[in-house]
Specification:
Helix content is 32%, strand content 9%. With 615 residues, it is of the alpha+beta class. The chain is globular, with a radius of gyration of 24 Å.
Length: 615
């Protein structure tokens, strides 16, 4: 399994920069190593020119927030592991403070705005500028493709498919970060009027979808393993569906226009048709669920419709690093995530019944049940969270289970949670849970390597998107109109159940004797879809953007953080108490955080290009 990335140093000097007064439109080259004619008449150089956008940590991936150099990968960029997953900006988890040079909890102070506030601006200068550079590279590739000499149709399609796909991808990054934008499809002339008005959020999403359609027309359905990481037709059609889901969601669609939901449902249905009819794309088995993210193998490629693969990679070059601090799990000095009780309670019992934290069963047996009422949790719980009593290869080798407790009858310190004077020692979990989903054994040993995956859209996402959109468009149990989706007969609940069936969870079904498995109203079913999305995609950096598009960032249930206080009362006996965390760890958000801050100098172009509200 390999990602297709070439060494692009021969043309890195053509990466396009900024003029001082029109930064976001990114018009002028910084330097020129090859002439325009040399690049755009030669196929290998033209291919390399567009390929540069996929070089690690230069354009595509999150950049190190300290280093502003994005020209070539030199080994000093560490992506998400540098400043942590955006999941830390949600009610799913928070970081474990360890080193002062890593932005820690500052993002939870809604009034802080300094160099540590890069979370709220997506690093307003570095990411913003890099995305606009990437869009210009894509536009130049499209504009000049007919100049290439002695090019075959296959070669031309390879460039055009990449260029349309990547232009759409980078515009989607702008959309979900900063909102609607001028949709620039031509390299701009510095002499023209550059005070371009911003398109609406919905219109920008629709233009993104159109670009993905253009990309799909030039791309193969399946990418060979040796070139995996390049976009495919499948990836383009799935990503189009994602863009239209964003257009239909409450933030962009406060009036709940049914046409937007229907457009999104149709696009999702078409993506599902393409995937299921391919004979290639499919959900991986539950036993391999964790391999979608770390220690990946060939099966991963069949579910991830578009993603980034970092192969044979030591943890310091991986895009993220999730640590667990104890002897058996390595030092865990930085990058560790404390998973909240908020997320833990979203994983129902294995029979589908929701968690009630006030029960005596949850107080004494929250993770496996008491054996009579319940016999376990949703299986994804065990593949996503590390909890007290968990069985893992690391601790089993020493004859014990995972130890996470705050207090013990015999004053023995837990191996995976150390306390001092009643307070949790920095680096250990503050909530009673660790991130297990993204943890790899390779993160323990210096120099050890593994395959790490970062996905932007996988097949499970598309099933969930369809369930969300089809429920709003036609109802949870209704099949789509055949004039809208000919040959497609899946309802919203059908596709939601596909995700649940992979997890060995019972179907939602109105005929079930268990009321908690009934579909309910459109609004009630939507809450089921949202919860499924949260537990299925935890720590994939999707929760933050879901909170935004659903416009629920200010919900009190989102803002208040909870953990699990654990007291060991006897050998093998515990009392678990759900406890609010320190108010300093709560999310302190306001309406302005639904969109990132735009670099001020770019809002001086004229009255048409405006700053986002509240900034």
């Amino acid at each position: 399994m390999k990602i297709f990335v070439k060494n692009l140093s021969i043309i890195s000097a053509i990466i396009l920069g900024f003029s001082s007064c029109v930064d976001f439109l990114n018009q002028t080259p910084d330097a020129i190593a090859y002439s325009d004619n040399e690049v755009f008449t030669d196929y290998p150089k033209s291919q390399q020119f567009i390929n540069q956008l996929m070089a690690p940590y230069c354009y595509f991936d999150d950049n190190d927030v300290i280093n502003s150099n994005v020209s070539t990968y030199s080994g000093k960029y560490h992506g998400k592991q540098m400043y942590g997953l955006r999941e830390r900006m949600t009610d799913n988890c928070l970081c474990n403070p360890q080193y002062s040079w890593i932005p820690l909890v500052y993002y939870r102070d809604g009034n802080t705005w300094d160099n540590r506030g890069t979370y709220w601006s997506e690093d307003s200068q570095l990411r913003w500028e890099t995305i606009w550079k990437a869009i210009r590279v894509a536009n130049l590739s499209i504009k000049n493709v007919d100049r290439i000499e002695n090019v075959t149709k296959v070669q031309k399609d390879k460039i055009l498919g990449m260029a349309y796909f990547l232009r759409a991808h980078f515009y989607f990054m702008l959309l979900q970060g900063w909102g609607g934008m001028p949709y620039v499809t031509e390299p701009l002339n510095p002499a023209q009027d550059l005070d371009l008005p911003r398109d609406s959020y919905v219109l920008t999403a629709q233009k993104i979808a159109k670009d993905f359609d253009s990309a799909a027309a030039h791309l193969p359905l399946v990418i060979p393993d040796a070139e995996w990481g390049r976009p495919s037709k499948m990836g383009a059609i799935a990503y189009k569906a994602k863009a239209l889901i964003w257009a239909a969601s409450p933030f962009a669609n406060p009036d709940n226009k049914q046409t937007l939901w229907e457009d999104a449902a149709i696009a999702c249905g078409q993506a599902i048709q393409l995937a299921e009819g391919s004979g290639y794309y499919k959900l991986v088995p539950l036993d391999n669920f964790k391999k979608l993210f770390v220690d990946c193998d060939g099966e991963t490629l069949k579910e991830v419709l578009f993603g980034r693969s970092f192969n044979n990679t030591p943890f310091w070059f991986a895009p993220y690093y999730c640590a667990i601090k104890s002897t058996e799990f390595g030092s865990g000095q930085f990058g560790a995530e404390s998973v909240t009780e908020n997320l833990a309670q979203c994983y129902p019992w294995s029979n589908g019944e929701s968690i009630d934290p006030k029960t005596d069963e949850y107080k004494h047996n929250p993770y496996n049940g008491d054996g009579t009422q319940h016999t376990g949790r949703d299986p994804r719980f065990y593949q996503t969270l590390l909890y007290n009593g968990a069985v893992t290869p690391q601790v089993s080798a020493t004859g014990r289970t995972v130890q996470i407790w705050n207090k013990s009858f015999d004053n023995v310190q837990a191996k995976e949670l150390l306390t001092s004077n009643g307070s949790v020692v920095n680096g250990y979990t503050q909530t009673g849970y660790y991130n297990w989903k993204l943890f790899s054994n390779a993160f323990i040993t210096t120099g050890a390597k593994t395959n790490v995956m970062w996905n932007y859209v996988r097949l499970a996402d598309v099933y969930l998107y369809y369930a969300e959109a089809a429920n709003r468009a036609w109802g949870a149990n209704a099949t789509p109109p055949q004039d809208k989706l000919p040959g497609f007969s899946l309802s919203a609940v059908n596709t939601l159940n596909k995700v649940r069936e992979r997890a060995n969870m019972p179907d939602y079904d109105n005929a079930s004797p268990n009321a908690w498995l009934h579909l309910g109203t459109v609004e009630e079913f939507e809450q089921k879809v949202r919860n499924e999305s949260r537990i299925e995609t935890a720590f994939e950096e999707k929760r933050f953007y879901d909170l935004r598009r659903w416009r629920i960032m200010l919900d009190p249930n989102v803002l208040t953080m909870y953990g699990m206080y654990i007291e060991k009362t006897a050998a093998g006996k515990f009392i678990y108490t759900v406890t609010p965390l320190s108010s300093s760890l709560n999310l302190k958000w306001s309406d302005r955080f639904y969109l990132f801050y735009i670099k001020n100098s770019d809002t001086y172009l004229g009255h048409n290009f405006v700053q986002n509200p509240g900034w």
